[in-house]
Amino acid sequence: MSRKSSPASQAQGNDSLVERIADLAVELAGELVRIPSESSAPVATDAKAPEAGVAAALAAFCQQHGLPCSWQEVAPDRCNLVVRRPKAGAPSVVLAAHMDTVSAAGMRKPFAAEVRDGRLWGRGACDDKGPLALAAAVVACLPEPAFDLTLLATVDEECSLAGAAAAAARLPPFDLCVALEPTECRVITAHKGVLRLALTTPGRAVHSSEPEKGENAISKMAPVIMALDALHQELQAGPMDAQLGTATVTVTTVRGGGSVNVVPDRCAITVDIRLLPDMTAGEMLARVQRCVGSGTAVEVLFSGAGMRTPADCELARRLLQAVRDCGGDDRSAGAAFATDCSQLAARGPCVVWGPGSIRQAHQQQEWISLDDIRRAAGILTAFLCG
What we know:
By secondary structure, this protein is an alpha/beta fold. The chain has two domains: about 10-190 and about 305-385, Zn peptidases (Aminopeptidase), CATH 3.40.630; about 195-305, Alpha-Beta Plaits. The chain is built from nine helices and 16 strands. It has helices spanning about 5-35, 50-65, 125-140, 160-170, 215-235, 280-290, 315-325, 340-345, 370-385, and strands spanning about 70-75, 80-85, 90-100, 115, 120, 150-155, 175-180, 190, 195-200, 250-255, 265-275, 295-305, 305-310, 335, 350-355, 365-370. The strands form four sheets. The chain has a six-stranded mixed β-sheet. A four-stranded antiparallel β-sheet has the order 10-11-9-12, with helices on one face. The chain has a three-stranded antiparallel β-sheet with strand order 4-5-16.
């Protein structure tokens, strides 16, 4: 005769599982932080294969825990890592997190992975190695997930979303993707898209003592910048999205001239545009070209769509319920930043969720709270156990 375990013993078993997952996630996160994986302006990373060390560590972790893994080549020496725990007939859930970080330039001991004051410190601690380690630990430790489960570790999220784009082209449709990012365990159901442009105005260089004989590229760029600012103000005055506010246009860099006594023959700026989910990059590009005029060259550097999860997505509601059951804030939220969901949403509904705070991401002092990892371990375990 079989005997069912009591509710008390089940609770103790769940607590023990969550503690084991959390401890393993903290240990793995520290290991990953110690491996440089800067994809933007790297100072301690092999620029040809910035994520290779992290990918190798994750593959070794999977082997240690009996998890078969495979590779998706994105570019030479840059591969996504895919781990599968299939369950026939069950809804499919993808846990996605990225292996790259922004540059650690200017940080003190960015790869020391120090644990102090209840926090793990270092580049990538919250964005995105803490969340990535949590996802791997959960996939490794869950005795019987309720879903057909895929762990996807992507490359180049910080710069181009190339890893997510490659995955979206190869993954089968899914019922929910949880992109693990630092959201303080809030469930993000919508985020903005991004369009990044390079604009150039030409000139003709002459000695600055006779500027009338040349053509000043910087002077030609000045009204372009003013036109872009007017476009930003126009967007600010337009319709307001309840979760995301308005689209934005921001000039982020200006480069022109090489000497104080030479009229500059070239001026270049970069522009970062954040789009609402119902906006397309093509439509916004056309608006920019109209407002800056034909004398300005416009080049697209990168674009990623916005994301919005349908309100009737059952699995998203179940994740919100898990947050509620674990004492968290179960109000869905929006985010101004873009994620791998910009690409992955083509395969199914997506949400963004995870431990850590976006306020610590990309900072000179980056950290993630160990308590936040433990809290997130409880939520993700509850959700994936159904």
